[in-house]
Amino acid sequence: KQEVTQIPAALSVPEGENLVLNCSFTDSAIYNLQWFRQDPGKGLTSLLLIQSSQREQTSGRLNASLDKSSGRSTLYIAASQPGDSATYLCAVTGANSKLTFGKGITLSVRP
Amino acid sequence: DVKVTQSSRYLVKRTGEKVFLECVQDMDHENMFWYRQDPGLGLRLIYFSYDVKMKEKGDIPEGYSVSREKKERFSLILESASTNQTSMYLCASSSLGTDLEIQYFGAGTRLSVL
């Protein structure tokens, strides 16, 4: 059974810092990996999706990498801002389009 | 823009009531999903559907059923609500084979069962 782990559960950084959020998964037979953002009490917003054949994807200040063989992904956030404060979830797509989620990392960016 | 709409943001029900959570998407997506999200447990898949009148059990289907009579609408049904079904419920949809199968989520329904 696929398991997705995100450590630490929470992170606090000063504004302007570059940071890396980690995600690991146990079964490398995935179709893709997604990073989502969730604001308190809200739904999820897809940030980046990396297909299993890709190594990384970029969107603005965000860069996500995927190392399928080692079961790892990172989300790099450049020049963090207070508006980046949210919970970031990693999810992998396995058979039948089913997503398995990590429990998320709650990021706080201090002004 | 893809829009996934959940009919209620907040819902309070009593133990034993039958509860309907409705989800509508406007992008003609084939796939629709229901999750629940709980502190410390993350998101867990309850049911999903690949097509009209089709449903598949997810990881935690006990105590729930679903209905998909039309492509755009996917309903989650709690036949007899219990306090352990107090949770945040999230609906999602995705397009089979296009959009890189990105799942688009609704805003969520926070259900309290008293």
What can you tell me about this protein's structure?
The complex is a heterodimer of chains A (111) and B (114). Chain A is mostly beta strands and 111 residues long. In chain A, 0% of the residues lie in helices and 56% in strands. In chain A, the strands form 2 sheets. In chain A, strands 2, 4, 5, 9, 10 and 11 form a 6-stranded mixed sheet that branches. Chain A starts with a strand and ends with a strand. Chain B has strands at 4-6, 10-13, 19-25, 31-38, 42-49, 56-57, 64-70, 73-78, 87-94, 104-105, 109-113. The mean pLDDT of chain B is 92. In chain B, the strands form 2 sheets. In chain B, strands 2, 4, 5, 6, 9, 10 and 11 form a 7-stranded mixed sheet that branches. Chain B has a 4-stranded antiparallel sheet with strand order 1-3-8-7, with no helix packed on it. Chain A binds chain B through residues 31-32, 34, 36, 41-46, 49, 51, 89, 91, 93, 96-99, 101-104, and chain B through 4, 31, 33, 40-43, 45, 48, 50, 56, 58, 90, 92, 94, 96, 100-108, 110.
The strand count of chain B comes to 11
| Biggest sheet details of chain B | 7 strands, mixed
Helix coverage percent of residues of chain A? under 10%
Terminal-residue CA separation of chain A:
41 Å
Rg estimate of chain A, integer Å: 13 Å
Could you tell me the number of beta strands of chain A? 11
Number of helices of chain B: 0
Rg estimate of chain B, integer Å: 13 Å
Order of helices and strands of chain B: EEEEEEEEEEE
Mean of residue pLDDT values of chain A: 93
- What is the overall shape of chain B? globular
State the helical fraction of chain B. under 10%
